[in-house]
Amino acid sequence: MTIDQLQQREGHWAIVDLSGKGGHVRTVPVPDWVYGQLREWITAAGIHSGKLFRLVSSSGIRLALGSTRPQVVRLLLRELIILLSMGLAIGGAATIAFGRSMQALLFGVTPYDPAMLSISGASLTVAALVAGYLASLRAARLNPLDALRQG
Fold this sequence. Notes:
Elements: E1 6-9, E2 12-19, E3 25-30, H1 32-45, H2 58-64, H3 69-98, H4 114-140, H5 144-149
Antiparallel strand pairs: 1-2, 2-3
Helix pairs in contact: 3-4
């Protein structure tokens, strides 16, 4: 994104002429408070023209530096498993902490029903692993040169 793409249109700030998927050009509205924070950051950094943000795929860089596709998939799945574990731990702790207060909303089960907790944890785990695996395969198919040219 360049500074020129941050424009005021019809009284509101927007990021204009962004290239989305398939080369579609989009305009994204920006809340005034976001624009204010961005303007402060630009001023503090002393940026007057040029690019503000540059998106580069980390998996594309890893591929360009010699990692194999299975290594990239393994790395992305490892990151997913760490995030999934943290989410399950936080969710389990919240269940224990707020279980009694939610008891009035539960019909036919107790707040600490082991079968329900196991089923919900397992289904969330399976859904996250399938989605993460498919996303990591897609990232591993990325052409490294395209990732480096991007931005």
